[in-house]
Design goal:
single chain, 396 residues, mainly alpha, Growth Hormone, Chain: A, 2 domains, 15 helices, 0% strand
Length: 396
């Protein structure tokens, strides 16, 4: 294996590991809330605010480090974030006091934001950013599925959750030095001015889209219990694990399907399946239909994430677009349950279905239009003499 190939492999491995670790706290939020409420008698509203606060700090941190990671070394930022997350986790395990968990969770948002900012900027500097985003999402879904199954196996306590947040950080500590620098990125596929505008439009659109994802999924257990009684809670817990595996399958087949169909048609299909599934989930009258659309949503979710994050990764060579999209996406993740709760309280499931359907349709259309625009710009742009045309121009 040549030195260049070894460097590319190490760079991709480092990005994938850091990205998965950065998203781990957010993916564990349902379990964290359950432990706070059930084990420490924290009221549900307070637990929800803590989870939202952690995610908001994550988003703010990603956007705050954007100027640094687009121009300078990403390794120190990633290492600082890992140190924060590991110290928070170890501190929680040693202290074991419910009063400390709130502050620790908020600090965890800072740590995960630092790692995510470094990883999302670095992905644009890999040899093939589009493919790298897909690999990262496959690994992310695999890690989330493993975490869901590990928590009950190792005790199902808050210490179990904190241990899962801590131990994988060792891998990031060992590989963060391989995060690729901005200078190693491929040539920009879209002119700088247009890329900047498209990046922020994509960021806002996908951030708003994520409100529909996390809003409805965040309320899925409540909806299921109201509609199906006590059986609704274990139903949703099982469906979350199954949907995560379905998302892994969706991410795995995405590069194959993209080669055959192109990014834009596949992205439109994934967003359409996701939106229809979520709306039906809100109004479904029986457990069979509810279960089918829940799993269908998970599959479409696994397809759409690598397509959108891959699109962001190829927009700018310094990773600025990728960081912006990731930062605003996390903001939508934080606001989704809060927005959905308010709509549900005021108008019930019918209002929630209508609002999320409209928001989803508008934002999905914007995302697809941006993907189409990027494809056209890339196809029309001149290719540098030392560039690989198949790598430089995304399929549409």
């Amino acid at each position: 294996m040549t030195a260049s190939r070894t460097s590319n492999t190490r760079g991709l491995s480092s990005v994938v590991i850091a990205w998965a670790y950065a998203l781990l706290p957010a993916n564990l939020i349902p379990t964290i809330i359950a432990r706070l409420v059930n084990d420490y008698s924290v009221d549900l509203t307070t637990a929800g605010f803590l989870a939202t606060g952690m995610t908001l700090i994550n988003s703010a941190t990603v956007l705050a480090v954007r100027p640094w990671v687009r121009r300078h070394s990403r390794t120190p930022v990633a290492l600082a974030g890992v140190a924060v997350l590991m110290l928070v986790s170890l501190g929680g395990i040693m202290l074991g006091q419910s009063g400390f968990y709130g502050a620790l969770l908020l600090i965890a948002g800072l740590g995960s934001g630092l790692v995510l900012g470094a990883a999302s900027a670095s992905i644009s500097a890999t040899e093939n950013p589009d493919r790298s985003a897909n690999v990262a999402m496959i690994f992310n879904r695999l890690v989330v599925a493993a975490a869901y199954f590990l928590v009950p196996l190792i005790g199902g306590t808050m210490n179990s959750v904190l241990l899962i947040m801590c131990v994988p950080g060792i891998l990031v500590l060992l590989t963060a030095r391989w995060l690729p620098a901005a200078a190693e990125a491929p040539a920009a596929e879209v002119s700088a001015g247009k890329a900047g505008k498209l990046a922020w439009i994509l960021a806002v659109a996908f951030g708003a889209w994520s409100i529909t994802d996390d809003g409805i999924i965040g309320l899925s257990e409540l909806i299921a219990v109201l509609r199906f009684g006590e059986a609704g809670s274990p139903l949703v817990m099982n469906l979350l694990a199954i949907a995560t595996l379905a998302g892994l399958a969706g991410a795995v087949i995405t590069p194959i399907a993209e080669k055959k169909a192109g990014r834009v048609p596949l992205l439109a299909l994934a967003l359409a399946i996701s939106l229809v599934s979520k709306v039906v989930m809100v109004v479904a009258g029986d457990t069979a239909l509810f279960s089918v659309v829940f799993v269908a949503w998970g599959f479409a979710f696994g397809m759409s994430l690598p397509l959108v994050f891959g699109l962001a990764a190829i927009l700018t060579r310094d990773g600025a677009a990728s960081v912006a999209v990731n930062g605003v996406y996390i903001l939508g993740v934080a606001l989704g349950p809060l927005a959905a709760t308010q709509i549900f309280d005021m108008g019930g499931d019918s209002a929630l279905a209508v609002v999320m359907a409209v928001l989803g349709a508008v934002t999905a259309a914007a995302i697809v239009v941006i993907a189409l625009r990027v494809g056209r710009e890339a196809a029309a742009a001149p290719v540098a003499p030392d560039s690989d045309p198949e790598r430089m121009v995304p399929s549409t």
